[in-house]
Amino acid sequence: MLDDMLEGNEEKGPGEPDPEADLRDYEAELTPSVRIPEAPSPSSPADVDAPAELQRKFWVLVLAFNGALLAGSLGGLYVIFRNDWYLGGRLLAAGLVCFTYGAYRLRTWDMPTGDGGETATDSGDDDEDAPDDDTEETEVDWTATVDGPGGRDDND
């Protein structure tokens, strides 16, 4: 019975007033009413407009550069903190190989220009050496070096 009184589960008689009945419900009044928007459903890979070959090339480059970053970072950490040149050197070499492979694939990739047919390397310009009308062409004398205007002598 004492436990019931401490927990507030005592039964009220028919003539007893309820002291909480006169109080307002502050919790309901102070709780903010915010409309939370629903997040859009993610699109499936089938909804992507990119061709399958382009997606495959993209993910190959992502994996190559992520592998380069991971192997290079771990290799550097092994060399610096553990002074383990055997494992760290191999990881650094693997990172360099992955980076070189990714850079090669990126440089040789014929990227689409977005107009639907041509690639960035196949622009259809027959005269590539023609200067733009807006730019002024300046000629640079590449023979002038730090050693002088005539360049280095072979006798030095």
Describe the structure.
The protein is mainly alpha-helical and 156 residues long. It contains 4 helices and no strands. It has helices at 2-7, 26-30, 52-82, 85-107. Helix 3 (52-82) packs antiparallel against helix 4. The chain is elongated and about 100 Å long. The model is unreliable at 122-127 (pLDDT under 50).
Task: Assign a percent range to the helix content.
Answer: 40-55%
Biggest pleated-sheet summary: none
> Could you state the order of secondary-structure elements as H and E?
HHHH
Supply the helix-strand structural class.
mainly alpha
List the uncertain runs: 122-127
Mean pLDDT: 74
What coarse outline follows from CA principal-axis ratios? elongated
Gyration radius over CA: 37 Å
Give the end-to-end Cα distance, rounded to a whole number of Å.
Answer: 110 Å
Q: How much beta, percentage-wise?
A: under 5%
Total strands: the figure is 0
Q: Tell me the number of helical segments per DSSP (H or I, 4 or more residues long).
A: 4
